[in-house]
Amino acid sequence: MSKSSTNLLEKTFDLRANKTNVRQEIIAGTTTFMAMSYILFVNPNVLSDAGMSKGAVFVATALAAIVGCLATAFIANYPVAIAPSLGSNAFFAYTVVLGMKIPWQTALAGIFVASILFMLVTVFKIREKIINNIPSDLKSAIAAGIGLFVAFVGLQNGGLLKADSSTLLTITDFHNPTVWLTIFGLVFTLILVTLKVPANFLLGMAATSVVGICTGLIKMPHHIVATVPSLKPTFGQAIFHLPNVFTPQMITVILIFFLVAFFDTTGTVVGLAEQAGFIKRGEKVPPRLSKTLLSDAFAMTGSSIFGSSPTAAYVESSTGIAVGGRTGLTSLTVAVLFAASLFFSPLLGVVTSQVTAPIMIIVGSYMVTSLGQIDWSKFESSFPAFVTIIGMPFFYDIAYGFAFGVMSYVLIMVCEKKWRQVHPIMYLAFFVFLFLLIAMNLAHY
């Protein structure tokens, strides 16, 4: 990279003020991309069950991620990656389309309407007010809960956990050779981290991929370059089917899409901001964080138009933050790699879940350090924090953990006759979450 290009990037993203550099940001962005690139393959598989074209969804997933990451790069200057959410795509395919018998084209139109609502509440800073009035202990619990969630997903993806009829979950039996690939990656990466080797996460993933290929556990791609699939089957279907969303059933679906995206991304962004040190204890939301929320609204709109499920801020952004990502250059790097993936998709098959699992487990350990900031001596702080922390991994959903944390906080404060100390927005959040839980339960029936 030329000196002039480096200077331009330093000036654009204010690297010196954020105590980072171009090399560190690019490594962080590459690490984040490798940790979240699985969505390029998982999303088409899930949405194809709803009758959508796999090829078109693959392209739509990449384009939505590009829009989201470019927005966080240039609007917010934050190292947070945005892409179609793994949880919302399952709700889209299995609950809305297959369960409620709503055509996928109409469901996309519902996402488009939800994204407009999403943008309005962001522009009018309603989301910002909610974040500012979340108690500090609860914010720290969100960061820790996401850490446990990330580690839990890593253990699951790496095959170190398995289902058990008696205990629900138990340790793997180690008969699967791919489990040993995860173990190799975890041990090797831990050694690199302990020795403080630069780019330790990236080197750990690269080494694990090489070992996987050499042992035959990861298949070598047959092609390096692939033709970009057509987007025609899904592009613009959300706009064409807007007239079909004005039914009681679709209004419920739109509200669920909106609320899940609202609180999922809000909880994730707060947790990531705490991990990176952007939010200090007791501080209000800085302008850059507010712009990240707006970036997610833009991405969700693009996602519906391209033909994919709603977007969200990715917890895997924590991997990039952990290796030093502090600015939008990290997000820009992710966007560039998503663009490249459109042409080199066969190579992405080398980065399996066993390759990324060790990184997620280690990053989870980083994020739970915020547990020390919680005041465990007060029940109104300790129990909501506890529910938030265990809710995210146990319910396998950040939004649920966030919801039960907020609801228990309000309930306890009222019972302790401290209701005047609770901000009105927290009461509003209580009833919104209550509606969300009821509506999602009814939608499944």
UniProtKB/TrEMBL annotation:
The keyword Membrane applies. It is a multi-pass membrane protein. The chain crosses the membrane at residues 26-43, 55-82, 102-126, 138-158, 178-195, 202-220, 250-273, 293-315, 327-348, 355-374, 394-412, 424-443. The keyword Transport applies. Keywords: Cell membrane, Membrane, Transmembrane, Transmembrane helix, Transport. InterPro entries: Azg-like (IPR045018), Azg-like_bact_archaea (IPR026033), NCS2 (IPR006043). It is found in: Cell membrane. Belongs to the nucleobase:cation symporter-2 (NCS2) (TC 2.A.40) family. Azg-like subfamily. PANTHER family: GUANINE_HYPOXANTHINE PERMEASE PBUG, XANTHINE/URACIL PERMEASE C887.17-RELATED. This is NCS2 family permease. It comes from Bombilactobacillus folatiphilus.
